[in-house]
């Protein structure tokens, strides 16, 4: 029952979703747009985790579920696994992806020959990029909460195209 | 013969109950499914010493009464599937096969973006697929 779609469609869909939420629906209210995008990601993650845990035996504890997210879930979504997983053994996990697929085509700073850039400051670029991260955060949160682990997920991009989820 | 299938969410809320008999004993079947939920919880919370059953999705025969047998299946997302059947000798492999197909129909129904997780499954396609699976199970019983 699986039909395949070109990956560029997904890229375009995500870019368009972020841009329409930020610019049309909730223009000038980036927090609301962020929450809406994250909520969409939550539902998607919820449903995807149902699909990808179908054949597997049940997980015995939180660590197994997180490892499932790092390995199988990530490779289903992004064709690679998480590169680095750190934990403080007290409930915080850091997932690091060194080449995050959805950000791999984003430039780190606005180019100098960009004609319509009114304010090429670091903050705007970082903020625009961080908008794109709410969706994967929502996906992770949805998948984990469907596996029975309530959590909060935040993302950090200090060096593109690497990306960390906490 | 399968008389009833049920899908119960992780807060023990019913998501889908469908009975396949002509008789009007829906309530009794619901009651049986409800009682089996307790058995599921028991199995999950007090694992037997044999560790191989700890992580299985298929829980096996839950609750044999005088007329019915109830089989259970627990997914990773704590959604439970129950199957009530009147067959007296049903092969384990058949029931596992049934649950696998049922799980795949369930995943497709839940992936519907208009489905709200936690609410009842109202998809007609899901109902049709389930009745097809039940019919094909009926045609190839083990006994």
Automatic annotation (TrEMBL), chain A:
- Determine the domain of life of the protein's source: Eukaryota
Gene3D superfamilies referenced in this protein's UniProt entry, alphabetically: Trafficking protein particle complex subunit 3
GO BP: endoplasmic reticulum to Golgi vesicle-mediated transport
Return the GO cellular component terms, semicolon-separated: cis-Golgi network; trans-Golgi network; TRAPP complex
Signal peptide range in chain numbering: none
Q: Which PANTHER family does the record associate with it?
A: GEO08327P1, TRAFFICKING PROTEIN PARTICLE COMPLEX SUBUNIT 6B
- Give the similarity note: Belongs to the TRAPP small subunits family. BET3 subfamily.
* The name this protein goes by in its record: Transport protein particle (TRAPP) component
TrEMBL record, chain B:
One Pfam match, given by its short name, reads Sedlin_N
One cellular component term (GO) for this entry is: endoplasmic reticulum
Q: What is its main location?
A: endoplasmic reticulum
The UniProt keywords, alphabetically, are: Endoplasmic reticulum, ER-Golgi transport, Golgi apparatus, Transport
Localization in the cell: Endoplasmic reticulum; Golgi apparatus, cis-Golgi network; Golgi apparatus
Domain of life from the UniProt record: Eukaryota
Gene Ontology biological-process entries: endoplasmic reticulum to Golgi vesicle-mediated transport
Q: How does it assemble?
A: Part of the multisubunit transport protein particle (TRAPP) complex.
* Family assignment from sequence similarity: Belongs to the TRAPP small subunits family. Sedlin subfamily.
Q: What is this protein called?
A: Trafficking protein particle complex subunit
């Amino acid at each position: 029952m699986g039909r395949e779609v070109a990956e560029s469609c997904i890229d375009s869909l995500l870019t368009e979703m972020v841009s329409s939420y930020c610019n049309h629906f909730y223009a000038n209210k980036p927090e609301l747009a962020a929450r809406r995008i994250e909520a969409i990601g939550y539902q998607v993650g919820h449903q995807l985790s149902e699909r990808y845990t179908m054949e597997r035996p049940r997980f015995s504890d939180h660590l197994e579920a997180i490892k499932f997210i790092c390995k199988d879930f990530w490779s289903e979504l992004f064709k690679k696994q998480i590169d680095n997983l750190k934990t403080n053994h007290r409930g915080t996990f850091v997932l690091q992806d060194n080449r995050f697929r959805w950000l791999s085509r984003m430039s780190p700073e606005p180019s100098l020959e960009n004609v319509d850039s009114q304010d090429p400051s670091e903050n705007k670029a970082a903020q625009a990029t961080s908008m794109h991260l709410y969706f994967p955060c929502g996906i992770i949160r949805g998948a984990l909460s469907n596996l029975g682990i309530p959590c909060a997920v935040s993302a950090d991009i200090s060096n593109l195209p690497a990306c960390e989820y906490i | 013969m399968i008389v009833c299938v049920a899908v119960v969410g992780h807060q023990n809320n019913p998501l889908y109950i469908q009975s396949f008999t002509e008789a009007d004993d829906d309530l009794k079947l619901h009651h049986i499914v409800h009682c089996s939920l307790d058995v599921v919880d028991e199995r999950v919370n007090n694992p037997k010493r044999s560790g191989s059953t700890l992580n299985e999705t298929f829980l096996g025969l839950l609750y044999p009464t005088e007329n019915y047998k109830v089989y259970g299946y627990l997914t990773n997302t704590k959604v439970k599937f129950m199957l009530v059947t009147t067959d007296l000798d049903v092969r384990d492999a058949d029931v596992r096969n049934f649950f696998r197909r049922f799980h795949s129909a369930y995943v497709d129904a839940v992936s519907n973006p208009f489905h709200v997780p936690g609410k009842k499954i109202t998809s007609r396609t899901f109902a049709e697929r389930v009745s097809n699976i039940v019919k094909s199970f009926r045609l190839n019983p083990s006994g």
